[in-house]
Design goal:
The chain is mostly helical. Helices cover about 75% and strands about 0% of the residues. α3 packs parallel to α5, α13 runs antiparallel to α15 and α18 runs antiparallel to α19.
C-alpha cells in the first residue's frame, strides 16, 4: 500500500478519523500507517495531549493485532494449499505484530505443526523470535503485498526487481530510493497499465513534490477510475492547497460504485468541513446517517462539526447515540467518544450527578488527564452548591 505521507496540514485528530475509516473497512495495514502519522503529528505539537496519544497508540495496537490474526488465517489457507514457505513467512510476520498471548500461542502452534509436517531445511522454519534472523527482501516484499487484493498481488509480484526494491524502500521511509527505483520500474512497464504510478506518487508526496504526485495520480485514475486510495491522496493535495471546490468536483466525478462507499463519502464531508462550510457539512453527515445504517465514524464527524460551530447540546446527543450503539452491540466504547460526551454535556450546561459519575469513571480510565477531570468535578460540585467537595477536588487538581 505504501507509506502514506505526513505532508497534510490536517490535525492529528483528523488523520485519526481517516485511520478510523480505514479500520472500519478492514484496511488494517493502511489504518496502522495513518495512526502512526497521527501520532507523529501529535508529537510535533508543543504540548501534545497525553489522552490523545494513548488513544491513538491503542488503536495502532488494535491494527497490529487484526493484521496478525489475518496473517494467521491466510497462513492456514496456504498450508492447506501446500504453500508451506509462504505460510511460514506469514506466521513469522504475525508473531512480530502481536503482543496477545493467546494469539501468539495459536501462531506458534501453527508453526509447530508446519515444522512437524516437513523437515527443516536450511533453517526454513527458524525460530521467528530470533533477532539475528533477518528476512530476505523477497520474504518481506511478499508480506507487504499480502494484504492487497488478489489482482493487485499478482500485478505487484510481476513488476520486477526495481519495483520490489522501490516498494520496500517506500514502506521503510526511504523515499529517495523509492522514487529512483519506482521511476525506473514505471519506465520499464510504460506500455502497460500498472499500479506503479500510485506507489510512485506516494513517494513523491513524502518528498514534498506535490505537483509530480498530482500528475501521476490524475493519470492513474484514468486507468483505474475506481481507486479509492488515489482519490484520498488527491483530495489531501487539494485540501493542502485550499482548493476545496476542486476537491468537491473531483469527488463528484467518482464512478458510481466507489462513490457509494463510506471512505469516498467521508472525503466529501471532510471537504465541506475543511472549507469552513459547517452547515453544509452538517447537512451532509445527517443525510448519510439517514440513508445508510448507523455508522459511528459518520456520527463522530457530525458531532465534531457540531462542536466546531458551538452546538454543544447537539454534539452531546450524537456522542450519546454513539455510546448507546456501542453498548447495544457489546463493543468497547472509544474513550475519546466518552470524553467528548462528557465535555459537550458540561458545555451544554449539564451539571448533573450522572455527569459527575462519568467524570469519576474517566479519572480511572484516563489517569493521565486526571487533573483536568478533577477540575470539572470541582466545578460541578460548585454548581450543585457543595463548596466543600468543590474545594477538595480543586486541590487534587492542582
Amino acid at each position: 500500500m505504501g507509506f502514506l505521507s505526513l505532508f497534510t496540514g490536517k490535525s492529528p485528530e483528523q488523520i485519526e478519523e481517516k485511520a478510523d475509516s480505514l479500520f472500519h473497512d478492514g484496511e488494517y495495514g493502511p489504518a496502522k500507517i495513518e495512526y502512526e502519522k497521527a501520532l507523529a503529528r501529535l508529537e510535533k505539537q508543543p504540548d501534545p495531549d497525553p489522552e490523545s496519544k494513548r488513544r491513538m497508540e491503542e488503536k495502532r495496537v488494535q491494527c497490529k493485532e487484526q493484521l496478525a490474526s489475518n496473517h494467521l488465517h491466510h497462513a492456514k489457507e496456504l498450508i492447506e494449499s501446500d504453500c508451506r514457505n509462504d505460510a511460514a513467512e506469514l506466521l513469522q510476520l504475525a508473531l512480530e505484530l502481536t503482543a496477545d498471548e493467546k494469539l501468539t500461542a495459536r501462531i506458534r502452534e501453527a508453526l509447530n505443526r508446519l515444522a512437524d509436517a516437513k523437515p527443516r531445511t536450511e533453517n526454513e522454519y527458524a525460530d521467528p523470535t530470533e533477532e539475528d534472523a533477518p528476512w530476505e527482501d523477497d520474504e518481506y516484499f511478499t508480506a507487504l503485498v499480502n494484504p492487497l487484493s488478489p489482482a493487485e498481488q499478482d500485478a505487484y509480484l510481476g513488476y520486477g526487481k526495481e519495483f520490489k526494491t522501490g516498494f520496500i524502500a517506500l514502506n521503510q521511509g526511504d523515499f529517495k530510493t523509492a522514487v529512483q527505483n519506482l521511476t525506473a520500474a514505471l519506465k520499464t512497464h510504460s506500455s502497460q497499465k500498472t499500479f506503479i504510478p500510485l506507489e510512485l506518487a506516494t513517494a513523491h508526496l513524502n518528498q514534498g513534490d506535490y505537483g509530480r504526485a498530482e500528475s501521476l495520480l490524475t493519470g492513474f485514475l484514468k486507468d483505474f477510475p475506481e481507486s479509492v486510495r488515489a482519490y484520498q491522496l488527491l483530495c489531501e493535495i487539494l485540501w493542502e492547497n485550499q482548493k476545496f471546490q476542486d476537491a468537491e468536483a473531483l469527488i463528484r466525478t467518482c464512478p458510481e460504485k466507489p462513490s457509494q462507499t463510506l471512505p469516498i463519502q467521508l472525503l466529501l464531508g471532510e471537504t465541506y468541513f475543511l472549507s469552513g462550510d459547517m452547515e453544509k457539512a452538517i447537512a451532509f453527515y445527517q443525510d448519510v446517517l439517514q440513508k445508510r445504517e448507523w455508522d459511528n465514524l459518520v456520527a463522530q464527524s457530525l458531532a465534531r462539526t457540531y462542536e466546531a460551530v458551538g452546538r454543544n447540546a447537539e454534539a452531546r446527543d450524537v456522542y450519546g447515540q454513539i455510546i448507546g450503539a456501542c453498548q447495544g452491540c457489546g463493543r468497547k466504547i472509544d474513550p475519546h467518544v466518552k470524553q467528548r460526551y462528557a465535555e459537550t454535556s458540561f458545555e451544554a450546561g449539564d451539571f448533573s450527578t450522572k455527569l459527575l459519575e462519568l467524570y469519576f469513571s474517566l479519572t480511572q480510565e484516563d489517569p493521565e488527564n486526571r487533573s483536568h477531570y478533577y477540575r470539572k468535578i470541582s466545578q460541578i460540585y460548585s454548581m450543585q452548591g457543595n463548596e466543600k467537595e468543590a474545594g477538595r477536588f480543586l486541590s487534587l487538581a492542582t
